[in-house]
Amino acid sequence: MADTRPPPGGGPGVVVYHKQGGQDGGRHAPPPEGPEIREIYTDSLNGIGNPAMAEKLGAILSFTHIGTGHVVKFPAAILSFTDSHDAALSKKYGWGSAEPTVDMTQNSTRKISFTFAVASASIEEARYNAQSINLLICMMYSALDARNTPSINGSRINIKGMNFIQDIYGEGVDAFITTLVYKPDLENGLITSKRTSSSPEMYPTIIKFSIEAEVLIRAIASAAQNLPDSYPNYGGSGQ
Amino acid sequence: MTYQYSPIKSIGDRSYAPLIITTGTSAEPIAEAKYIFLKDYSETYAAKWDLTRDPGALNPNWSYGGTERKINMSFTLGARNVAESKHNLAYCAKLIKKTYLNYLEEGTRIVGTGAGQVEIPNLFGVNPDVLSVNFGNLIQDTDVYLTKFNFEADFEAGFFTYDNTPIGTRGLGGAGEIQDAYWNMDGNTNALISEQGYVFHGEKGKIYPRSINVQIEMHAILGSSVTDEPASPLGFGGKSRGGSTVSKGWSLNNNRDWPHGTGPISAAKYCKQTSVAPLRSEPDPDEPDSVTERTRSFRQRTGR
User: I want to staple B148 with a disulfide (CB 3.0 to 4.6 A). Which of A142, B33, B204, B217 is the partner?
Assistant: First the structure.
């Protein structure tokens, strides 16, 4: 059977990727290396701890920046998850009619919001997690061209989180993250280092992230069927 | 650094980061550094997406309009004595002023209607000061506009009050007056009065809070109030990474992790600095050709 998957980063129109090789005839220093792939913290993968458990269960939450290919992964310590599917209707109200006439379904939108926590058990883990968190935050910004103009992909991010955050092919969903909130849980304290400079290190033991995003729906319509039976793909079966 | 109760200061000096807020203006070159009792902290990154849908379309058309960064903090300023409470109030007052514009022009406004209209003096302001904020590795050299400052005296914690109870029989004055005098003469030596002992004052009609709850909101902006250099926009690649469109490096290109510091470990790969050769191509007609000119143009654009 032919693979009918749309190209990665699908969606409406044409996704423009930048040309390779730059626009300056190679006069500049070589560009930085390939995309950064940050896995979850591994030093505690000795069977205990949050990352070890996540690895064992395959409970990984990953974010991929569409514009650059940078990837960052966290243990999927998801605290809440909401998937909202809303249909916008075009309604007409008339004198003498008890109900509005629905003229047309304008379109439907899918929005996801979820919170997850990143916990650290040592200063080494906290530093590693801080770099991973930095990358996630940086992903909220765009790739820039030679004139510092943001790319068409902006801060579009592909998110994959077990069977709740995935598309019908079992891959991540492309999302327009509108809000990302970084919120340390201060009741659980801070990990600090011995102060050796004017800028001491303070790492929250637990940091909570809240994310709100509108999701692109990756599907190809056919004559026989609109959205596939597997949409949305939460991994359920038997109905 | 402003006065702070010495045990708190010594604990802070050992293992905690002070909140340092600098105005960076030559007229008022203050640098407030204070150990705070942090109660709440959050950073919000809001990407401005314009998502429009054609009727019936499965997916939207999109355009990206940048990302905003806001920082919210709540903290408590505790006071162990009258002097610290006064410092706390002055600290708050100084920062509260930064939520306002700089009112440098005088003008008039009209109030009332019809025959009752009168013209009265008014002040007109320009941009508020840009503040540079540091708070350990959480906030590093970040330029902000202070957009909100909530001041709340904690009434349950109580106040340092006026006391004119006579001390001795020689007419030296009230307890508060004497404590004020001793503190001012003492110069933090604890010879005349201890830090914990300065709990009354001689200013009738005034009360000084033992605890103040503060909530501030800051809107991070690009640029540096220190150098006035036009800022690189935040993102991956871009001009500061050599203008190569395939660069995946962070645009600040300064070998530092962003936005949070990560201590002694080396910067993440995408934050590592790359050297960039000067561009020898034709100058961009829209681009100012010198640092001075770029700075002037940047100031014109931003009003800074």
Answer: B217
